[in-house]
Amino acid sequence: MPRRSYNTSNSNDISSLTEEEIEEIHEAFNLFDTENSGTVDPKEIKCAMQSLGLDTKNPLVFQIISDIEKSGSSSINFNDFLQFITSRLGNRNSKEGIQKIFNLFDDDKTGSISFKNIKRVAKELGENISDQELRDMINKADSNGDGELSFDDFYNIMTRKVFS
User: Fewer CB near the terminus (10 Å): N or C of the chain?
Assistant: First the structure.
């Protein structure tokens, strides 16, 4: 069965990842690889998402499943999965990469990230964060006090350097 390769013109995407980030993506891949075959197919991705209580309508997950099915391939291996993820998210340190991540949060396409958006993402990631903690996170980064994060607010968070 033919496999599609997700090589992109921006080969720096993968090289910009840390070993820890690649390991996290590998752990996610292993969760999807329910048959321990070294490859994942759309059915495995859907089952893994459902077993984790995650929304299979998440735009990134939907795109992975859709692209596997469109490619005529029955499955993808980890390297293809890694290339696919990085090509979809781009370089997370670039403005374009951060915009792609922002768009994953802003699933209702309002141009800002609301409490509802952050709550959905936290749930999809399996994070147990109280509503108050989520509101506090928004309030810390919200530059105009409207209770939502603009792209500029989000960009500032993503590019902020933490000093100890």
Answer: C
Report how far residue 63's alpha carbon sits from residue 16's, in angstroms, rounded to the nearest whole number: 22
Q: Find tokens 């309508």 and name the residue.
A: 57
pLDDT in tens, 51-69: 555 555 666 667 777 777 7
In this prediction, the residues of the chain whose per-residue pLDDT falls under 50 are 1-12, 162-164
Are the CB atoms for 8 and 83 separated by under 8 Å? yes
Domains of the chain: 17-89 (1.10.238.10), 95-159 (1.10.238.10)
Question: Which three-class secondary structure state does DSSP give residue 64?
Answer: helix
Q: SS3 of 36, please? A: coil
